[in-house]
Amino acid sequence: MSSRSAVRLATRCTAFPTKRTVFPASHTTVRSVSKTPKREDAAVATALEYEVPIITYKDGLREEHVVPISEPPVVKPPGGDVRKVAYPLSAAVCDQLTPTMKKFTLNDRVAVVTGAGRGLGYNMAQALAEAGVKGIAIIDMLKDEGEIAARELAEQTGVDVRFYPVDITKETLVHKAVEDIVDHYGKIDIFINSAGIADSNMPAENYSIDRFRRLMDINVNGNFIVAQAIGKEMIRTGTKGSMVFIASMSGSIVNYPQQQNCYNASKAAVIQMCKSLAAEWAHYGIRVNTISPGYMDTALNRVPQLDAQKKMWVERTPQGRLGNVDELNNLAVMLASDASSFMTGSNIIIDGGYTLW
Questions:
Q1: Which InterPro entries does the UniProt entry name for this protein (predicted)?
Q2: Which of 164, 185, 207, 263 is catalytic?
Q3: Residue 72 has pLDDT above 60, yes or no
Q4: CA 348 distance to own-chain centroid
Q5: Is 248 among the residues known to form the active site?
Q6: Active-site hit among 194, 200, 242, 248
Q7: CATH number of 102-356: 3.40.50.720, 3.40.50.740, 3.40.50.150, 3.40.50.300?
């Protein structure tokens, strides 16, 4: 046994128990992919679907509370509603694709997606499964949501899905998780980083330095920690991989009317960090790009307290609507695939035209 393997085994005895109660074994399933997924924990489902944590500020005071919401109508983009079920890409179908379309497939590749317990990250993980990946590792500090997401994704697609309940700011735990992923799958081809928070909606003069540090620690330091760990493995295994970071148009503009100095700064840092990584790792065959979404129709943006702000956002968007949560999927797949093989260091803004005005 190599010294590297011995160290990994020793660390997994505590952080990765053999019973996999912390990091469950593969969620791969042979159930029909047409079966509607079930959320077995009704309480968790209710929390995910109908309750949204809200942080408000008044006179410089911060208040935290949970707002119950009824299911709102889904904004319909061209192409229809958000799908609740994913479908795997079969070998038979892939063989019939033209050479151009095959460039967009991800057959036999392994992906790591952070922040995929819900929202944009989960939707992109679903898209990767449909594009043909053989394995997906979800990293998310939200344990209940992550377990449900991994189980549902595996049931829908038959993909080998593993979930790691890890805080991305904890360097040691991140490196252990990444090593375990490589031990299981043999490599990592794709990294999509969707983890981040936006706790900064208050005037800069009232924003505490502790809160500033926390947001930067997650949005910037945590992003780098995971990228570094995966980058090292890609370099070690000679994998010519692709990294896709979810930044924000807030990294290029100042949002209105909300005041979010720290969030904007963190996303600008992510964009520049990725450009630097793209330049440094290009000779290893590793590509690094960012997607900068505009205002999206996520659960966190559906609460009544944001109605006035959303009206302003929509009015300032040429397309006159918020983005749907699955409208980043195709771009994420393209950036992860060989269809973007000569593309690195790019920041793609997908915002319905918001930044045009």
A1: NAD(P)-bd_dom_sf, Sc_DH/Rdtase_CS, SDR_fam
A2: 263
A3: no
A4: 16
A5: yes
A6: 248
A7: 3.40.50.720
